[in-house]
Amino acid sequence: LKWPRAPPPRAWNGTGSTPHFSEIVLGRCFTYTQLLRPELGHADCGQIGKAFMNAFLSKDPCHSSEQDYQLLLKLTNQTIPCHSSVFWSKSSQLAHLYTTVQQDMFTLEDTLIGYIADGLNWCGDAGSNEMNYQSCPHWRKDCINNPVSVFWDTVSKRFAENACGVVQVVLNGSISNTFDKNSTFGRVEIHNLHPGKVSVLKAWVMHDIGGVYSYHTCSSPIIDDLKLILSKRNIPFTCEDDYRPIKFLQCV
Ligand code: 2NF
After folding, report:
1. Ligand 1 center from residue 88 Cα (angstroms)
2. What's residue 210's pLDDT?
3. What is the tens place of the pLDDT at every residue in 85-143?
4. Mean predicted confidence (pLDDT) in 215-243
5. What is the predicted ipTM?
6. Residue closest by Cα to atom 2 of ligand 1
7. Strand pairing of 198-206 and 165-172?
8. Does ligand 1 come within 6 angstroms of the Cβ of 133?
9. What are residue 171's phi and psi, to 5 degrees?
10. How many CB atoms lie within 10 A of CB 151?
11. What is the spatial distance between Cα 102 and Cα 84, in angstroms, rounded to a whole number?
12. Closest Cα to residue 205, out of 95, 84, 82?
């Protein structure tokens, strides 16, 4: 006698949820709030973990929404001092090395919510209350409104909205899309900076060590695209190639 079994979850084209996702979220939350930034020691990691899981469990992983993450955002609210926000695009390693050395500077991943989620994958399914460890929607091949993409768009938007004073962005001058209108930085972050709140956006265009391959510099037309978007939004903009405090980090 064969009992009918639940149909297997649909196979997506992206990597499945990170094994031990909820334990990693909880562990990272405690590491951040107890050890790295004890001033956030009052944060409720139990609630944060629950809110994260509830944002996507038992839901269609192609219909994730900003709304799903609102409680998680509320629970991880954090004030970043003015003049300390650092954005990045295609320069993850170098930007994070910069803020690791410069402890008073923050990338999104140096904030609680970014620290918790960085490098993880997650999705659920409408017909189950479990995570899908087999596969998750790939943002290009399956659907753009998947839990991970919507999460990063949502938290990146808040990070940009909250930025104030002098803000910085680390760009990669050794690739063709030094500024990419479709990246999170080009599509979400620059459009959510508040004019009047942000006094200037300083771009650092970094080139690979040795300077053999310099695709774009501050004088490239691609940087003018960024300049134009910001001038239309009344946000002052400056650009510098191979900013020294970041340049010397490429040697370590
Ligand atoms: O994973 C992160 N920590 C992350 C992801 C997306 C966005 C962080 N961000 C925030 C950071 F705060 C930066 O300021 O946005 C900025 C960087 O994003 P970017 O898209 O401008 O930079 P990329 O180097 O092009 O991408 C960063 C990572 O995100 C992935 C991409 O594959 C890379 O691993 N990514 C970009 N767009 C999507 C998307 N729509 C995406 N992954 C899924 N869906």
Report:
1. 9
2. 66
3. 999 999 999 999 999 999 999 999 999 999 999 999 999 999 999 999 999 999 999 99
4. 97
5. 0.94
6. 118
7. parallel
8. no
9. -115, 155
10. 23
11. 10
12. 95
Place of tokens 């320069």: 91
How confident is the model over 127-164, as pLDDT tens digits?
A: 999 999 999 999 999 999 999 999 999 999 999 999 99
Specify the DSSP class assigned to residue 167: E
pTM of the model: 0.94
Take residue 133 and report the two structure tokens written for it. Answer: 């460890």
Structure tokens belonging to residue 176:
């063709």
Cα 183 to middle of ligand 1, angstroms:
7
CA distance 115 to 77: 13
Res 7 pLDDT > 70: no
Please check whether residue 43 is in contact with residue 112, taking contact to mean a CB–CB distance below 8 angstroms: yes
Q: With contact defined as beta carbons under 8 Å apart, do 60 and 142 qualify? A: no
Helix (H) or strand (E) holding 221, with range, is helix 221-232
pLDDT of residue 131: 98
Residue type, 138: H
143 as an active site residue: the answer is no
How many Cβ atoms from other residues are within 10 Å of residue 168's Cβ? 24
